[in-house]
Specification:
705 residues; alpha+beta; Phenylalanyl-tRNA Synthetase, Chain B, domain 1; 8-stranded mixed beta sheet; 3-stranded antiparallel beta sheet; 22 helices; metal-binding; tRNA (guanine) methyltransferase activity; SAM-dependent_MTases_sf
């Protein structure tokens, strides 16, 4: 009876459709297996795509057509079994399909994936005594693959993953060529997928905002390439391969580039990008022979592409330069990076887990870095010192010490570049620079805890402020462990700046000039990026850079060990020249501004602190930050001394009443000098005068709130 009914229904179906529609159906669709449930037999509409389930339709009327195959007045739901929804009249069926199936559907390219209640999803049976109950749940059928997913949010995420991978046809038919986008950066072209800017959602993540990060790393590698040639460098997380391609394209025979990624699709894109930039590819030995006869090591335009876990390749091979840029924290790869890195090599790492490093997720910072932190005015420098402390501990476990060459913390990332110094003595010296920080939560005063194993009776005495005596309760917290040493190497930064000028990296030059200025902790105005014999000079906020007469190539002598000794001696001479470290941390002018008073211009204030005998400079961590060795009390005193009252309407004509600690004879900038200050410092557009928001009149004899 069932077979006969199937033949009758199919004959009726053929009779209802014209020949043209049947031919279209044969060309565009494959017949779906019919469903037998209570004698109801359903077929597929001719309007729907190939290899798709009956729950996937373009219009609600298409679902109703499936139910119209039955000639009875009462019609069943095509997506529900009879025991769940019995046959009913057309108006009731229309409401059922619209409210239960159509409203909760997932849309994709004009099609709707409606929720299905048919017994087509395998569900584990529930054993109750000796009986087996087959309880079928609602689910969705994927329009691209054969997956069945229960939740609507999971179905949306499943479809998005297909789209990110370029899979928009049934049975995973991937068409990459028309969907790929070509992006050019620093004379290097790379192909990326459509959703390349979404991390962890695509195989080829590419962030244009990290261009400055890539330029800084390139400058560091270029400086190392001047010291010794050739050097083996590794980009452990290639993604699109943009960074390694830039290294090989500009530095050429000075470097041997290896780009690694553990994702197969990323490795494929890296190879395509190498061919796009006319680079030959040398495959990993495990994968097979090379693409295009690239066996000899003398071939300069060759990039080795490997498909391994980053920890595995760093354990197997030695490198002179290693860059780590995973999604999030880098702590899981530090031990492997320092295991085989060569002596006097460089390890650079980019950490993008800024939510934990910038004290927004303090429990994550404790879990990843073993560090206790709170949100402070100098939170970006705090993040850099947290990462360096983790790097130092990882290097010390391998009997290696570090020298910090560069530490940058910007909006999207924290970049740390260190030089590796082999030996237990250097490891001990580096480990001693990891200390705890005492931070006052009232006035933001801070100081590193004194070295020693003895417990102090009153650790608050180490702080220069007296908040503990004047405020109730506990006023300070202990942060760390943190790196307490220097964050910059001035000589290395100068050479990085010269490389940036040589290769035309305009985006990195202003930051490098600020870093040199910050490393020296000076506000001198004269800046030169040329050799000592060149008379051309550039005016920029920074210092006058003098380049050494001895080039880096003169350090290279025949013999590996002897050459390294000469390089080590040159590094020691550079340290002796720049032994004065910059002050730790900085102060924010807005944080310590005085209510009812207008602050002076930032550059003017730097001059006032410098005239008072303190070292002072701006900082890249904060546009309104001031790095100085002045105590916080003296910082506030100078700020109060050169601040002017905020005038109200009835007060503008009256005399000025200065704070008690400012003498009448001392020079105080008045409101009339504002134009003169603006003309003298036109480049400072971020250090404007802070006006009081309220129109309330403050007493003129009140110095501060």
């Amino acid at each position: 009876g069932v077979v006969d009914s199937e033949k009758v229904k199919s004959d009726d179906l053929d009779a209802n459709f014209p020949e043209s529609e049947l031919e279209t159906e044969i060309k565009r669709t494959e017949e779906e297996p019919t469903r037998e449930s209570g004698g109801n037999i359903l077929d597929v509409s001719a309007d729907y795509p190939r290899d798709k389930h009956i729950s996937i339709q373009r219009h609600l009327a298409d679902l109703e057509k499936l139910a119209d195959l039955r000639e009875d007045k009462k019609k069943p739901c095509p997506l529900c079994p009879e025991e769940k929804f019995k046959a009913c009249y057309s108006h009731k069926l229309h409401r059922h399909l619209q409210n239960l199936h159509w409203k909760v559907s997932v849309e994709f390219k004009g099609y709707r994936m409606c929720i299905c209640h048919l017994p087509c999803r395998p569900v584990k049976p529930n054993l109750v005594g000796d009986q087996t109950l087959s309880k079928m749940g609602a689910h969705y059928h994927c329009i691209i693959c054969s997956a069945t997913i229960t939740r609507r949010t999971d179905m949306i995420g499943h479809i998005n993953r297909h789209v990110n991978k370029g899979e928009t046809e049934s049975r995973f038919i991937t068409v990459r060529a028309p969907t790929n986008e070509v992006i050019k950066e620093s004379a290097t072209e790379v192909q990326v997928l459509p959703n390349h800017s979404t991390p962890q959602k695509t195989d080829s993540y590419f962030n244009p905002k990290m261009k400055l990060n890539r330029q800084l790393i390139f400058c560091a590698l270029a400086v190392l390439a001047e010291e010794r040639k050739p050097i083996e460098c590794l980009d452990a997380f290639g993604a699109t391969g943009i960074m390694g391609l830039q290294w090989a394209k500009h530095l050429k025979s000075s470097v041997k580039v290896t780009i690694n990624d553990c994702n197969e699709n990323s490795v494929k894109i890296i190879k395509e990008n190498c061919h796009l930039n006319k680079m030959k590819v040398k495959l990993n030995m495990k994968e097979g022979d090379s693409d295009g006869a690239v066996g000899d090591e003398e071939n300069t335009d060759t990039i080795e592409v490997t498909k391994m876990d980053a920890n595995v390749i760093m354990h197997l091979r030695s490198f002179d330069f290693i860059h780590l840029d995973p999604f999030g924290t880098s702590v899981n790869y530090l031990d492997s990076a320092f295991r085989n890195v060569r002596n006097l090599g460089i390890v650079s790492l980019t950490s993008t887990d800024i939510s934990s490093l910038y004290a927004k997720a303090q429990h994550v910072a404790l879990r990843h870095y073993g560090c206790n932190i709170v949100r402070t005015e100098y939170y970006k420098e705090l993040a850099a010192r947290i990462v360096i402390a983790a790097v130092t501990r990882a290097a010390a476990r391998c009997n290696k010490g570090i020298e910090v060459l560069l530490a940058v913390a910007l909006e999207h990332f924290v970049l740390v570049v260190v030089r590796v110094l082999r030996g237990p003595s250097t490891a001990d010296n580096s480990a001693k620079k990891i200390q705890y920080l005492i931070h006052c939560q009232w006035c933001e005063e801070r100081i590193f805890q004194k070295e020693g194993n003895m417990v102090e009776e009153n650790p608050y005495q180490q702080l220069p402020c007296d908040c503990h005596g004047s405020m109730p309760g506990r006023t300070a917290v202990v942060l760390g462990p943190l790196w307490s040493g220097s964050l910059f190497n001035t000589g290395f930064l100068r050479r990085m700046l010269l490389e940036a000028v040589q290769y035309g990296l305009d985006g990195a030059q202003p930051l490098l000039k600020t870093l040199v200025c910050e490393a020296e902790c000076t506000t001198l105005k004269r800046f030169s990026t040329h050799g000592p014999g060149d008379e051309n000079k550039q005016e920029e906020c920074g210092v006058y850079i003098k380049t050494s007469n001895i080039s880096a190539e003169s350090y290279i002598v025949p013999g590996k060990r002897k050459g390294e000794e000469v390089i080590r001696g040159a590094i020691k001479r550079q340290r002796a020249e720049h032994s004065t470290e910059h002050p730790a941390f900085y102060y924010n002018m807005h944080r310590h501004s005085i209510r009812g008073m207008n602050m002076p211009k930032l550059n003017k204030f730097l001059n006032y602190l410098s005239e008072a005998g303190y070292r002072v400079s701006r900082t890249h961590f904060d546009p309104m930050g001031v790095r100085t060795n002045a105590p916080l009390a003296q910082f506030k005193t100078v700020l109060m001394k050169y601040s002017t009252p905020t005038y109200t309407v009835g007060q503008a004509e009256g005399p000025l009443h200065l704070p008690g600690d400012v003498q009448v004879g001392e020079e105080v900038p008045a409101a009339a000098d504002t134009k003169e200050e603006d003309a003298e410092f036109p480049e400072d557009d971020k250090s404007g005068v802070v006006n009081a928001v309220s129109t309330q009149s403050y007493p003129t004899d009140c110095a501060a709130d």
